[in-house]
Amino acid sequence: MSNSILKGKKGIIFGALDETSIAWVTANKIYNEGGRFILTNAPVAIRMGDIEKLAEQTESKVIPADATSIEDLENLVEKAMNDLGSKLDFVLHSIGMSVNVRKGKEYTDLNHDWMTKGWDVSAVSFHKLMQTLFKLDAMNEWGSIVALTYIASQRTFPNYNDMADNKAYLESIARSFGYYFGKEKKVRVNTISQSPTLTTAGKGVKGLDDFLNYAELTSPLGNASAEECADYTISLFSDYTRKVTLQNLFNDGGFSNVGVSQEIIDKLNNK
Q1: DSSP string, 58-93
Q2: Dihedral sign computed on CA atoms, order 171, 212, 201, 163
Q3: Are 255 and 228 within 8 A, CB to CB?
Q4: How far apart are CA 121 and CA 95, in angstroms?
Q5: Which one in 93, 194, 216, 259 has a CA-CA gap of 20 to 30 Å to 181?
Q6: What is the C-alpha end-to-end distance of the chain, expressed in Å?
Q7: Strand pairing of 36-40 and 10-14?
Q8: Where are the domains of the chain?
Q9: SS (H, E, C) 110-172
Q10: What are the pLDDT tens digits along the chain (271 aa)?
Q11: What does the alpha-carbon distance between residue 105 and residue 89 come to, in Å, rounded to a whole number?
Q12: Residues 102, 114, 133, 78: is their CA dihedral positive or negative?
């Protein structure tokens, strides 16, 4: 049920690929809450995915952009403001990629050229995006920028590989750039640390099903779904969270504050 809490707000959504994407689910929720937006992804991702279908569902326009290219980002932001008729109120960065994960390389034997590529796409792109928004003065006061992350940025999860390093860097960028965005533009910058979620990108992580099961058994409230992540993101785009910034916010059913659950102990004891 819609409460229209984003009525009149306009923004850009990065990373919608198909119906399993958190960005896809979030786009539909934003649309239902009265928000309007430009959809964007890398040209190759647009060719692989179904983003045009989402655009039709949400009466949106798709503008391709390589998030690692300042030129592409400047073109995207300028066109978005022109098409939407105003500055932006929200931006969602839902981008992550590791060539090493895709190719099955172990963390102790990384291809560092691939590592640099994944770092640029998954983390540095967030700095490039915010730098572009900042320089073009593209955000309205009390606007909100959100990026999606994962607790592997702070704790060791075997097989999450160099994506853990990328997420750690992403969170640091959010805090550092968020300070300047807050002081000079009155814009909020936060990251959401989401439960492991079965997305197209997530399926590339070896042992994801085990991650999901372990987190479900550990979290008092169970894993947060893509729908619940979208709801949380919408709250951060709304006017109800105007003084929330520089935060890494856990949407994980309590997983991040549990040492071990009784369910895990029982499984270890074969009960």
Answers
A1: TT-EE----TT-HHHHHHHHHHHHHHHTS-EEEEEE
A2: positive
A3: no
A4: 7
A5: 194
A6: 42
A7: parallel
A8: 10-268
A9: CCHHHHHHHHHHHHHHHHHHHHHHHHCCCEEEEEEEEEEECHHHCCCCCCCCCHHHHHHHHHH
A10: 678 999 999 999 999 999 999 999 999 999 999 999 999 999 999 998 899 999 999 999 999 999 999 999 999 999 999 999 999 999 999 999 999 999 999 999 999 999 999 999 999 999 999 999 999 999 999 999 999 999 999 999 988 999 999 999 999 999 999 999 999 999 999 999 999 987 766 556 666 788 899 999 999 999 999 999 999 999 999 999 999 999 999 999 999 999 999 998 888 898 6
A11: 40
A12: negative
**Letter string b/e over residues 229-266, b meaning 16 or more CB atoms within 10 A of that residue's CB:** bbbbbbebbbeebeeebbbbbbbbbebbeeeebeeeee
Query: What are residue 250's DSSP bridge partners?
Result: 193
Task: Produce one character per residue of 150-181: b if its CB has 16 or more CB atoms within 10 Å, e if not.
Answer: bbbbeeebebbbbbbbbbebbbbbbeebbeeb
pTM reported for the whole predicted model:
0.95
Question: Cα Rg for the chain, rounded, in angstroms?
Answer: 18
The tokens of 213 are what? 């099961």
Q: Scanning the structure block, which residue is given the tokens 């929720």? A: 29
